[in-house]
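ok so i was messing around last nite and threw this chain in just to see what happens. nothing serious, just curious
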Amino acid sequence: MILEVTSAVIMKLREDASRAAPEECCGLLLGRHGRIEQAQEAANIAPDPRRRFEIDPAALFAAFKAARGEGAQVLGYYHSHPTGDARPSATDREHSTGDSRIWAIIADSEVAFWRDNANGFASQPFRIVQ
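result:
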């Protein structure tokens, strides 16, 4: 299945990564039915935000609560690699849960999408839509 991502989301991911550098940005990918329509930035509360990310639990709680109502679904997460590339790092792989959610990784203005599956991360094909 090809993931659809709006051009506005791609632009926001790049902007968030640029603004946060040299620290990692992070946030939530929201949408419905295999289409990411919103990127919601969250505070990176990791002890060392230059090398790791940890999404503020309050942002996670609020997004999942909204999704139980009529809100957009939490399809995945995003973060940046200010000094790396747009592939899952060793730390990312350690945190893989196999929950099938999407991870977007932004590095040097490149945005790549990965699916967290039972075998770790698999590259997720996507197309940009309006």
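not much to say yet. The beta strands are 3-6, 26-32, 35-42, 73-80, 102-107, 110-117, 120-123, 126-129.
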